[in-house]
Amino acid sequence: MLCNPSNPTGGVHSTELLTQIAKVLEKYPNVVILADEIYERLVYTDDGQCTSFASLPGMFSRTITINGFSKSHAMTGFRLGYLAAPERFAKATSVLQGQITSCASSVSQAAGVSALNEVDDSWLENNVVIMKEKRDYVLQELAKMDGVSVSVPPNGAFYVLPDVSKYYNGDDTQLCLDLLKEKKLALVPGESFGAPGTVRISYATSMEELETAMTKLREFLESL
């Protein structure tokens, strides 16, 4: 399973790294790759590119690519996603889907068609600019907080996963519970992602909300 760009870190794997992973997988021909690339249109690197794993040599016939409209087109409530895969995998997944959800609603499908046909790339590109500004603001504010660090700035998605292990003896779950109780600010414990001592911050909101959130977080940490 490969999530690129990543939730919760916002990391984006380079083409070079992905190629190295593909080289390793050449030794294991029975391994199928499930590539979650739903954040591919939210990338803040200089070239703004996210290499699709299926495009690498030898990977097309063994990769199941997962994508959707929730992130790129801000259509979270429509619950519309899709996969691209070799026919044998696509048929197997359609059998499973037929017994679980049958299909996406007709309204969501129509909205997806409109998103593909009527939303210009310039809108998506402008959205990346806006999200990058929000990312930069959150990183700037976190840098001012004592005991908080971000080892690798995120280059994709809309999350930051700062290290807050200097507080609560690394108990990120209790930190989030107390933060919610005292400041009405909801963050996700990093322990949920196998990263104890961290918290996930989403900046997919207005700048006004982010300013309020960062102020609350700073005040809470300063009170400890």
In a nutshell, what does this entry contain?
The chain has helices at about 15-25, 85-100, 105-120, 120-145, 170-185, 205-220; strands at about 1-5, 35, 65-70, 80-85, 160, 190, 200.
Keywords:
224 residues; alpha/beta; three-stranded antiparallel sheet; 7 strands; globular
Structure characterization notes:
The chain is α/β, with parallel strands linked by helices. The chain has 6 helices and 7 strands, in the order βαβββαααβαββα. The mean pLDDT is 96.
Please describe the topology of this protein.
Elements: E1 2-3, H1 15-25, E2 33-36, E3 63-68, E4 81-84, H2 87-100, H3 106-118, H4 121-143, E5 159-160, H5 172-183, E6 188-189, E7 199-202, H6 207-222
Parallel strand pairs: 1-2, 2-3
Antiparallel strand pairs: 3-4, 5-7, 6-7
Helix pairs in contact: 4-6
Write down the overall mean pLDDT: 96
Radius of gyration, rounded?
19 Å
The number of distinct helices, counting runs of at least 4 residues, comes to 6
The oligomerization state is single chain
- Return residue spans where pLDDT drops below 50 for at least 5 consecutive residues: none
Give the amount of beta strand, in percent: 5-15%
How far the N terminus sits from the C terminus, by CA atoms, comes to 39 Å
Query: Describe the biggest sheet?
Result: 4 strands, mixed
| Principal-axis shape | globular
Order of secondary-structure elements: EHEEEHHHEHEEH
User: How many strands in all?
Assistant: 7
The helix content is 25-40%
- The SS-based structural class is alpha/beta
Strand order of the largest sheet: 1-2-3-4
